[in-house]
């Protein structure tokens, strides 16, 4: 059109072109055209489109320059700049812009609208400010914007509540919504999963289908994440069936999630079937399958799959840091120390990957498991100097656990001191220290009381029908506890029938109580 010259370029054409632009160099060229034609200063719509284009291309400096040059800003100008800052994670600058006098005083007859509140809710999520969500909700209510059933605003509010941990507020809001679309349902399912309530997420997915709403790929990813969190094969297969019927199973992201979900459920046959069915695989697909094999004790198969991955004729499928982490973890859990050391060395030599803290932690765990405590200690002290306190604590904890298994008190005492120094509020270090041979139980208990450390109980989950039942050691809170302990006693009587010998009978009672404690724990 420019080369033809027969038609004069105007602001409308430029706005459309800027909206289509997704490369910074092209956007800068269009900006130059706007400058030469004198369109930027006279047309606020062109200026707003330039702000939006630069923000989408993450050139916030240029976006701010254009924004500041707009003589009379309207609400779209403010929304575009705020949205760009929030999207880029520049939350402090977004707050500063919100607090600027010209915005607060409504300069240039500017008043915020529903889009402004949507941007504010995105800011609430990034800053995890739950109370701000309620304030935005109150403003929207007073302005009667919620009464008009503005779905984008309602969906944004639902998402912000869920991501900020106010799931009950989200559920109440969802229950009062007259209109719901696929984004609404997907947001609620993702919110339940995010808040550690996967069974409610799956119940929402069932209600969604009953309401005649078909899931999209985003919905399926949230549903499969909930299935992975529950580690329930039957439910995962149902979700897989929904993905197939919806025509989503062959999408790469959904396929990757299926492989990961089946792997966490321990169903490696189904995981491999989903893996082989994918027409296009990326590095995440291979990493998910290698990780699933390693997680379930199939280290040789994980290494074989790595070899198969290396033979792939695809430049986009090359082992990365996550691949090597899955391989090293598989070798560590499978006891393949030599293979693990070989692949650790190949990281740099063959793939030009520098070992990160996570890889070094895997090596510490691998060596410690087989009793090479000196080698594990050497890695921590020499190669993990720049690691964060959390990573160091994990490495020393792995070493401490191995010292307990191999009865090495000298190294164990040093590892225990490091763990307690790095994580004084975590009960795991104290409990492992107490279980060491010759551990100072009294001193550890005193330290825990002094520091107010609470012990997190281990628990088991038993699935009965559609309901999951949670048990801790010597659980006395369950509704059917009398029947549970009665049945356990009956089972142990079948294992070891009582005799008339008094000593044997006492031994049998002790054995039964110990087994009951172990089974419920």
TrEMBL record:
Q: What Gene3D superfamilies does this protein's entry cite?
A: Tetratricopeptide repeat domain
Keyword Transferase on this protein? no
Natural source organism: Lolium multiflorum
Its Gene Ontology molecular function terms? Answer: RNA binding
Protein's name in the database: Pentatricopeptide repeat-containing protein
Residue spans crossing the bilayer: none
Which residues are the signal sequence here? none
Q: Which Pfam families match?
A: PPR, PPR_2
Repeat as a keyword?
Answer: yes
User: Where are the PPR-type repeats located?
Assistant: 43-77, 150-180, 181-215, 282-312
Which PROSITE patterns would you find in this protein's record?
A: PPR
Instruction: Name its GO BP terms in alphabetical order.
Output: RNA modification
Q: What keywords would UniProt list here?
A: Repeat, Transit peptide
InterPro entries with a match to the protein in the record: PPR_At4g14850-like_plant, PPR_rpt, TPR-like_helical_dom_sf
- Which sequence ranges form a coiled-coil region, renumbered to this chain? none
């Amino acid at each position: 059109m420019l080369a033809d010259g027969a038609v004069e370029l105007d602001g409308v054409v430029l706005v459309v072109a800027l909206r289509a632009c997704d490369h910074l160099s092209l956007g800068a060229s269009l900006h130059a055209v706007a400058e030469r034609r004198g369109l930027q200063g006279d047309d606020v719509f062109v200026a707003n489109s330039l702000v939006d284009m630069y923000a989408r291309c993450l050139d916030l400096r240029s976006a701010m320059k254009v924004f500041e040059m707009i003589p009379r800003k309207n609400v779209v100008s403010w929304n575009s700049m705020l949205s760009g800052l929030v999207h880029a994670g520049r939350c402090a600058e977004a707050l500063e812009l919100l607090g600027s006098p010209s915005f607060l005083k409504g300069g240039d007859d500017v008043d915020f609208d529903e889009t402004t509140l949507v941007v504010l809710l995105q800011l609430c999520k990034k800053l995890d400010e739950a109370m701000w969500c309620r304030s935005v909700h109150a403003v929207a209510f007073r302005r009667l914007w919620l009464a008009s059933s503005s779905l984008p605003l309602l969906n944004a509010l639902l998402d912000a509540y869920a991501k900020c941990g106010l799931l009950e507020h989200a559920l109440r809001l969802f229950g009062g919504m007259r209109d719901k679309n696929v984004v609404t349902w997907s947001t609620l399912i993702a919110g339940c999963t995010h808040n550690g309530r996967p069974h409610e997420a799956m119940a929402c997915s069932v209600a969604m289908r009953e309401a005649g709403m078909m899931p999209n790929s985003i919905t399926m990813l949230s549903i499969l994440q909930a299935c992975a969190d529950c580690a329930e094969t039957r439910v995962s297969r149902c979700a897989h069936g929904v993905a197939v019927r919806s025509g989503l199973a062959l999408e790469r992201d959904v396929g990757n999630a299926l492989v990961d979900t089946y792997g966490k459920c321990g169903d490696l046959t189904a995981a491999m079937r989903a893996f082989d069915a994918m027409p296009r695989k990326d590095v995440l697909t291979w990493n998910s399958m290698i990780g699933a094999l390693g997680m379930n004790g199939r280290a040789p198969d994980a290494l074989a799959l790595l070899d198969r991955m290396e033979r792939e004729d695809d430049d986009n499928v090359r082992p990365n840091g996550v691949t090597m982490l899955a391989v090293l973890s598989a070798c560590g859990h499978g006891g393949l120390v030599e293979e693990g050391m070989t692949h650790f060395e190949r990281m740099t030599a063959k793939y030009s990957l520098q070992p990160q803290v996570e890889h070094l932690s895997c090596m510490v765990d691998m060596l410690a498991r087989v009793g090479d405590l000196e080698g594990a200690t050497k890695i921590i002290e020499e190669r993990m100097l720049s690691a964060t306190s959390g990573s160091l604590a994990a490495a020393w904890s792995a070493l401490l656990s191995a010292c307990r298994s191999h009865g090495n008190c000298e190294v164990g005492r040093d590892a225990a001191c490091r763990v307690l120094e790095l994580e004084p509020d975590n009960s795991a270090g104290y409990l492992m220290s107490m279980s060491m041979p010759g551990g100072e139980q009294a001193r550890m208990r005193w330290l825990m009381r002094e520091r107010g450390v609470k012990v997190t109980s281990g628990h088991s989950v038993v699935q009965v029908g559609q309901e999951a039942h949670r048990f801790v050691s010597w659980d006395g809170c369950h509704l059917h506890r009398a029947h549970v302990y009665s049945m356990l006693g009956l089972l142990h009587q079948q294992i070891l029938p009582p005799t008339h010998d008094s000593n044997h009978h006492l031994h049998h009672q002790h054995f039964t109580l110990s087994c009951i404690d172990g089974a419920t724990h």
